[in-house]
Every structure is written in C-alpha cells, then in structure tokens.
Design goal:
This protein is mainly α. The chain has 2 helices and no strands.
Length: 67
C-alpha cells in the first residue's frame, strides 16, 4: 500500500475487527433464532450474516472513498 500511514492501517484493522465480530454475532443470533422458530431450514443463519456483510461493505466503501 503506497502512501499508507499507521493511522490508515489502524483504520483498516478496525474495520476487520468490526467485520469479524459482526459476522460472529450475526451467525450466533441466526442460529439462536432458527432454533426458536424451528422451521427446519436455517434461513436466519444465512440471512443475518449476509445483511451484516453487505452493511459493512457499504460502510467501508463510504468511509474510505475520496470525498
């Protein structure tokens, strides 16, 4: 990464941690919710992490794009 500063590297590390924690919580919440509704298909276990992933990608693009 040409021209990277320690601050920008820490910003990207923060995004990575947010993404990992967000996906972990979304998977856990999806599994928990799927067990509660008991429909037999793990819909929320797939849907919640997908929503978190899309939301985080939009956030990263907005935060890192030139203004």
């Amino acid at each position: 990464m040409k021209g990277s500063t320690p601050d920008s590297l820490m910003q990207y590390a923060g995004y990575a941690v947010q993404l990992a924690v967000g996906l972990g919580l979304a998977v856990w919440a999806g599994i928990w919710a799927d067990r509660k509704i008991a429909i037999g298909i793990p819909v929320l276990s797939w849907l919640l992490p997908l929503v978190v992933l899309i939301g985080m990608l939009i956030k990263v693009v907005k935060d890192t794009s030139k203004k």
